[in-house]
Amino acid sequence: MTSHGDDVQGGEDRSGTGDRAAAKESPDVEVPAARERARAIPEAAVARLAVYLRVLSGFDEESVTTVSSEELAAAAGVNSAKLRKDLSYIGSYGTRGVGYEVSVLIGQIERTLGLTRKHSVAVVGIGNLGHALANYGGFPSRGFPVSALFDLDPDLDGVPVGGIPVRHVDDIVEVCQEREVTIGVIATPAQGAQEVCDRLVAGGVSCILNFAPVVLQVPDDVEVRKVDLAVEMQILSFHVARRQQDAATANGADLGPLDGAGPVPAEMDSVNGMVVRP
Amino acid sequence: MTSHGDDVQGGEDRSGTGDRAAAKESPDVEVPAARERARAIPEAAVARLAVYLRVLSGFDEESVTTVSSEELAAAAGVNSAKLRKDLSYIGSYGTRGVGYEVSVLIGQIERTLGLTRKHSVAVVGIGNLGHALANYGGFPSRGFPVSALFDLDPDLDGVPVGGIPVRHVDDIVEVCQEREVTIGVIATPAQGAQEVCDRLVAGGVSCILNFAPVVLQVPDDVEVRKVDLAVEMQILSFHVARRQQDAATANGADLGPLDGAGPVPAEMDSVNGMVVRP
DNA sequence: CTTTGTGAAAACATTCACAGCC
DNA sequence: GGCTGTGAATGTTTTCACAAAG
């Protein structure tokens, strides 16, 4: 039910719980109640919990034992009301008038995010990015040991990268089953990505982090998140454009209502379906 | 205005327009009207427009000249209503009963995203990830030429990576101003990131893509997006946990509506502020 | 008849503001 | 006094469903 047909995968969107199918398939029972707990946490809040966890780890290393919602929120870059709301989804672990105990909060967030269990990771596509991912210290240190690497290139077969020998993509199914890989990272070019994805799924992998610029087709019980650098850049580009346009129109507006549209290119006059200049 | 204090930066969240500050600072004029156009496009829709653009480019290469909302939506992994709504934000460029002309749509989305102008990119931190980014073909091919690389390591000074010589981070301000860099990519470890960010901003960079696991402090007129691999993994982990838990509770619930709440822990009755069981 | 474009409704997420507890 | 936890209010995004257009 997660990440099926509609909804752009991972990366940017992050809205909608992705659980519409569950509601549809049993119209008799309104709310299954028992399986609500985890589902009840908004997708957006889950993402922030991961950020809080990192910030809390920092506090913990500095031997800070207690934080207020205000402090934690500031460090995480959110406002305190949102932080308290997010934490309320996982339970009440604060003390009124005092704040939260860092170690308790770390434990509860880890439990909620399922980090008490190790998730072994496979990286497919050992090019520039795959290399970087295989060597990325952030994975193992946070409970995500990289336990398999794959590439199409036979020359790489057996070559160790970051201490792990690369295997051929033909072995994906076998190796993933054997090592109980739960998370597959796709760092291949676009062409191979769907095929790789299919093999990962056949190997029992239920979560995929996709760096390839394609929309993957997966069964309903597989979760996909997408990181697309080009998309990120284009979103930034949009904001540059908006800012420049704002600045341009502000110039025209400040000096009273003379022409104002002087430096604006010709095709500018109809944007967004609204005629801006008569 | 964009990405200030509240709101987790980039990456996950992507909600809220981020323009609250603009509204606050001029309480006299209710809606400035002229600077509305681009702002009116929801953040989430902007991200999807970038995806549509990639899919459309694919169609274009296959010499497909016309697509319906249904086809395009399927290829982009969204539902057609959402796609049409998204496209409606940038104008009416379809033909009822027929569909959209691929080339027209590509042009309009590029214009909306500000891709008619080149954005030169600087990458800071030439480690594993920085290397991958410097060599990443997706940037230049999509109008984002990488025009500067920086690293702290003096040994790298002058060494070409992907054809571009690495410069020392001390030169960031100077080089960014000189080459009119608009987008800065931070691929350094956490420690250096804020300092690097400050220099990029001093060098006139108004958009930052941050791979370092820290929340950056920036002026209101700088846009930050964050890509955090550990966070992505943890979100996936959460979904694994939720699925397993669902499966476990489903075992207890399948056998008809006898007690039904049997295996539910005590704290279950109040979730999300609503009493689930009477 | 097919498909777009879009108001209106529903779902979702954030912020407010304050009761309740320490 | 200070801070958490949370209903209620507000704002945003998605979905529905259908009139308008070719």
Automatic annotation (TrEMBL), chains A, B:
Cellular location(s): Cytoplasm
Regions recorded as binding DNA: 51-90
Binding residue positions for NAD(+): G125, I126, G127, N128, L129, G130
InterPro entries membership: CoA-bd, NAD(P)-bd_dom_sf, Rex_actinobacterial-type, Rex_DNA-bd_C_dom, Tscrpt_rep_Rex, WH-like_DNA-bd_sf, WH_DNA-bd_sf
Domain CoA-binding, chain residue ranges per copy: 115-215
PANTHER family: REDOX-SENSING TRANSCRIPTIONAL REPRESSOR REX, REDOX-SENSING TRANSCRIPTIONAL REPRESSOR REX 1
Quaternary structure, from the entry: Homodimer.
Entry protein name: Redox-sensing transcriptional repressor Rex
Gene field: rex
